[in-house]
Every structure is written in structure tokens, then in C-alpha cells.
Design brief:
Layout lengths: L12 H13 L4 E6 L5 H12 L3 E5 L2 H15 L9 E2 L8 E5 H9 L2 E2 L4 E2 L5 H7 L4 E5 L6 H13 L5 E6 L8 H11 L4 E3 L1 H6 L6 E8 L3 H22 L3 H10 L5 H6 L1 H13 L6 H7 L10 H13 L5 H13 L3 E2 L2 E2 L5 H8 L3 H17 L5 E5 L21 H9 L5 E4 L4 E4 L2 H7 L4 E5 L5 E6 L3 H13 L5 E5 H4 L10 E5 L5 H8 L14 E9 L12 E2 L1
Parallel strand pairs: 1-8, 1-9, 2-4, 2-7, 3-4, 7-8, 10-20, 13-18, 13-19, 14-18, 19-20
Antiparallel strand pairs: 5-6, 11-12, 14-15, 15-17, 16-17, 20-21
Length: about 550
């Protein structure tokens, strides 16, 4: 099958170690490898496929990553041979290496058209065709963040072939922060982790560049702070109204009846400690036996907003108040607008938490980081900023004095532009570049039109090409230093985009997942053959509330 195909380079030490142990790992029919972005997982996967000497289907989360498998195979394993006899990107035409997306697999099993590639699988019986063609290996690339329907399709596919195939699972970021049932499902597909290649080893072997992560803190804007303050003031008024209503005393009197009921006390220990802290705030003399039974230090904690929130919700759902009393208690908090989806929320509502996490104050952080990095790296700066939203409708702010009111591709671009640093914006629906790039791109035979953004020296570039070509063209300008800062969406540039030139990364995304943020970090930590001395900085933006002095207040932080 792959007799005349060999890796044209030399395997790194950690790659060779895994290859030497592969037969042991594959004893159960699966090998599951974890390694950071840039560690050579694709090369490792291709060599494992080659050694198994059987046709393989490679599944990837995006077309960019799917294509990289073909590109790596052609560049690193073929010695002048035609890739066409080995390689296919269409499940209708199974080859020794068939590299497709999980979305394509889902479409093929449902016998529909793959919208992304326009391949029609209406007449394909995939399972039968896989068996007919002797597919004996399935390689799962980054199977950690499948959409639910894609995962169901993958599980169905693997189940139909169980016992007939070997599975190679490769990922940079296993879902360590997933819920237990989600982790069980992930391991059920990929198998238990056999080998993990850690970052220090990769840096030591100069596979990844030396890099450092930083937290950069900012306060919310004055307007945001005013919203947070107003909400908490309403919460405190509601608490004071509850304390003066007599409901807490009635609940405490009923609780005394449970003093000897340890099943009840230890089932609701956390809630009851919070409730007793609330009782203490209501100037109720709390029974010391209860305190000793429920605490280790025989002392009640301070009644901050989180504990009072827990206590109030316990009263609303528990048996310490009658139905009428629970209704009266609920009305107090509803009147002050601090109830959300049936729960009393005293810290911040979901809307305000989102406002904190996506604080416009982060734009100031981006400005300060960009200036600092430009001052230190000069013309060598290659700063990538990744965020979630584009907000193309707000293009009018570019070149104006308008105050920026959100964190998006457009607002981050304008923030950097106002510093005077050469910047570009790149997303699926919006590309903004300096006017000087037009002639360069025309010389490279790019097909596009431009729409100038006033007298800013920048224009919107409408490329008559797909996203892959846009990324290639804009990425080349970035690599060459024609622009020193590139602002893009995490969906387009956060995974699967190889840009070794990136030496500074700002994560202006609101993703709270270790898995996705680690994928984005991978854009910066690759080595750059053009700059052997490359080091990288990775900036994580965190908004921290200003201290708001109040007896019942505990400040929140969000990243």
C-alpha cells in the first residue's frame, strides 16, 4: 500500500519514542496521542498510518486542517510521486488516504450534500463502500470539539466498523474541563490517552519557541461600573427588606426543629451554613449546637452576596417556609429585579456578567499591549488579536472620533489603527488592509475590489475568492511585515492556521474553555525558521471590578 512512501525527514526524539511504542499502544486497536500545536502531530499520524499499511480515512474539524493532511503528506512523504494516486478529499472516491471533515462524514451517513464542499452523497452507502475498499484505519484529528450531531455520526460510523479498524486519535487539547459524562464519551471514541508530549520538552527540543503567558487586567468602563453598582444596590435593598420582613426569623424557628436530624443537616450543610450567616446578619442569636454541627471551626462565615444568594434560594425551594411565605419572599426579590429564570441572583445577572466578561475596558488593554509590543519588537512585531465578533455594521467608526462601545474585529482594528501601528482585519466577511497593499496584491494576481474608508489610508478589500485564499493572501502580507498587527476571528484564525511568524498573541475572545483557548495559543508558540531566536508573548485579558464598599459585597472577576 505505502511500500514506496517514506518520511523524507528525521523524526524528533519524542515522535520516535511514540513510534517505537506504537505496537503496544495499538494492542487494543486504538492509539491516543496528546501534543501541543506545532509538535508535529500530523507527521506522526501519517507515519502511523504508513506503518499500518492499510487505506485510511482521516477526519478533521475544518477544511483547512483537512487540506493540511494532504499538504503534509505530499511535501514530507512523497518523493516526486503523484499525490493523486494516494489522496482524495471526497468520500465518494475512497483512496489510500481519504482526508475529509467530520461534517462530510455526517453528510455521507445521512446521504445528503456536504454544503461546504458541494459533494453529493445521496447514492453512497458509506459503510458498505468502506468495507469494500478495505479501509482498516481511521485517524481522528482534534476530535475534542465535535458538534453533537457530528459526534453521533462518528460514533455510529465507528460502531458499524468495530473490530475491523484501528483508530489513531490525535489532539492538542483533550477536554480536561468537560463534565464526567462528556469525558467518558470522548474517551469512548478516542480511547484512553496513551502518550502526552508536554510543552517544556517541546521547547527544549526547539519544536516550540520559548513563550510566556500573561494576564492583563483592566477595570470596566465607568458606564459598565454604574450598571453593576445599580444592580447590587437593588440586591442589597431587597436583602434589607427580607431581613425586616420577619421571614428569616420564622425559617430559623422551624430549623431548630431539625437540630437532631443529621440526615437533613448534612444533606444541606452548605445551604444551612449560608442561611445561619444570614440569620446572624438579621441579629438572630444562632444556636451554638447548630454552628458546631455544621462548621469545622465553630464559626459562621461572613454573609457576602454569594452566601445570601444561596440561602435565599434554599428558602424558596426548601421546607423552612410555608408556601405563602415562600411567595412573599420571592416577591421581595422580583420587585427589585434580581430574579432570573426563577432563581434569585444577587451578584450579577447573566446579562451583566456577559457585559463584565466582554467589557469595553479590554480595548484599552489591547491598545497598551500593542504599543508596548511595538516599542519592544519594532518592525519585527507580528501581533495577532483573536476575538469573537466582527460587527461589520459598525465600520463607520473607523476614522471617526466615535467612542467604541464593544469588543469586535472592527473596534479592535480601530483601536490599533489609532495608535499608528500598521494593522489589518481578517474575517470571513470582512477584510480591511492598508491602501498600499492593493498594488502588492495585484502584482500577485489577486482578484479583488476595494472600498476606501475615508482618508484613513485603509480600505475594505472584497476578495473574489474563498476564505482559504483570503487567509493566504492577508497572511502573507502579515508575514512580510507590511502589516504588523492582524485582527481576526477565532473561528477563522484560531485553529488550523499555520502562521509561525506570530510572536505576540492577544486573546480578546470570551471563550471560557481550556480546550479552545489552548488551540488559539497554538498560533503563537510555533518556531519560525526565518527567525530562529523567536520568542512569543500570549496575553489573556481579564476584567476586574473596582472595589465597591458595602457590607454584603464581594467583588467578582471575569476573563
Amino acid at each position: 500500500m505505502f511500500e514506496n512512501v517514506h518520511f523524507q525527514g528525521q523524526f524528533r526524539t519524542y515522535q520516535q519514542k511514540i513510534l517505537d511504542s506504537a505496537d503496544v499502544y495499538l494492542h487494543d486497536g486504538r492509539i491516543h496521542i496528546v501534543a501541543a500545536p506545532g509538535s508535529g502531530k500530523t507527521i506522526l499520524g501519517l507515519e502511523l498510518i504508513r506503518r499500518l499499511q492499510a487505506p485510511c480515512i482521516i477526519l478533521s474539524p475544518t477544511t483547512t486542517i483537512r487540506n493540511q493532511w494532504g499538504e503534509r503528506f505530499t511535501a514530507s512523504f512523497l518523493n516526486g510521486e503523484d499525490a493523486g494516486q494516494y489522496l482524495s478529499y471526497d468520500l465518494n472516491r475512497l483512496s489510500p488516504l481519504t482526508s475529509v471533515t467530520y461534517q462530510a462524514l455526517h453528510a455521507a451517513l445521512k446521504r445528503t450534500k456536504d454544503a461546504e464542499d458541494d459533494f453529493d452523497y445521496a447514492s453512497l452507502d458509506l459503510i458498505q463502500e468502506v468495507k469494500r475498499c478495505g479501509i482498516k484505519t481511521v485517524c481522528l484529528d482534534e476530535a475534542h470539539h465535535l458538534q453533537n450531531e457530528w459526534q453521533k455520526a462518528l460514533e455510529k460510523f465507528l460502531s458499524a466498523l468495530e473490530g475491523e479498524i484501528k483508530i489513531i486519535a490525535l489532539t492538542a487539547t483533550p477536554p480536561y474541563d468537560a463534565k464526567p459524562n462528556e469525558w467518558k464519551r470522548y474517551v469512548g471514541v478516542c480511547g484512553e490517552i496513551d502518550e502526552e508530549i508536554f510543552v517544556p520538552e517541546l521547547v527544549k527540543q526547539e519544536t516550540l519557541c520559548p513563550h510566556q503567558d500573561y494576564l492583563y487586567l483592566n477595570y470596566p468602563t465607568d458606564a459598565e461600573t454604574a450598571d453593576f453598582k445599580a444592580y447590587r444596590e437593588r440586591a442589597i435593598i431587597a436583602i434589607e427588606e427580607l431581613l425586616s420582613s420577619g421571614l428569616v426569623e420564622k425559617a430559623y424557628e422551624r430549623l431548630i426543629g431539625f437540630v437532631g436530624d443529621y440526615d437533613f443537616l448534612y444533606t444541606y450543610t452548605k445551604e444551612l451554613v449560608a442561611f445561619l450567616a444570614l440569620c446572624s446578619e438579621a441579629r438572630i442569636s444562632v444556636d451554638k449546637k447548630l454552628v458546631r454541627a455544621l462548621t469545622t471551626g465553630n464559626r459562621l462565615p461572613s454573609p457576602d452576596l454569594k452566601r445570601i444568594e444561596l440561602a435565599v434560594n434554599f428558602l424558596l425551594k426548601g421546607s423552612l417556609l410555608t408556601e405563602d411565605e415562600r411567595e412573599a419572599c420571592s416577591d421581595v426579590f422580583k420587585r427589585h429585579g434580581v430574579v432570573e429564570r426563577g432563581e434569585v441572583v444577587l451578584g450579577l445577572s447573566e446579562r451583566l456578567r456577559k457585559k463584565l466578561v466582554s467589557s469595553v475596558g479590554k480595548l484599552k488593554s489591547i491598545e497598551e499591549i500593542a504599543k508596548s509590543e511595538e516599542e519592544n519588537k519594532k518592525e519585527a512585531l507580528r501581533l495577532l488579536v483573536l476575538t469573537d465578533y466582527i460587527k461589520k455594521e459598525s465600520l463607520s467608526v473607523i476614522g471617526s472620533d466615535t467612542k467604541l462601545d464593544s469588543v469586535s474585529v472592527v473596534s479592535v482594528f480601530e483601536t490599533v489603527r489609532r495608535t499608528g501601528i500598521a494593522v489589518g482585519a481578517l474575517s470571513g466577511s470582512l477584510v480591511v488592509l492598508p491602501d498600499a497593499c492593493a498594488d502588492i496584491l495585484r502584482n500577485r494576481k489577486a482578484d479583488f475590489t476595494v472600498s476606501p474608508l475615508g482618508d484613513t489610508g485603509y480600505s475594505v478589500y472584497d476578495f473574489h475568492a474563498d476564505n482559504r485564499e483570503k487567509v493566504r493572501l492577508a497572511g502573507k502580507l502579515f508575514e512580510e511585515g507590511i502589516i504588523n498587527v492582524l485582527v481576526g476571528t477565532k473561528s477563522l484564525l484560531g485553529e488550523g492556521w499555520d502562521a509561525p511568524c506570530v510572536n505576540s498573541l492577544i486573546l480578546a475572545s470570551f471563550v471560557g474553555s481550556f480546550m479552545l483557548s489552548n488551540q488559539m495559543r497554538g498560533r503563537a508558540i510555533r518556531t519560525d525558521k526565518n527567525r530562529p531566536d523567536k520568542t512569543a508573548n500570549i496575553w489573556h485579558l481579564v476584567t476586574v471590578e473596582r472595589p465597591y464598599l458595602c457590607l454584603l459585597y464581594t467583588s467578582d472577576a471575569a476573563d
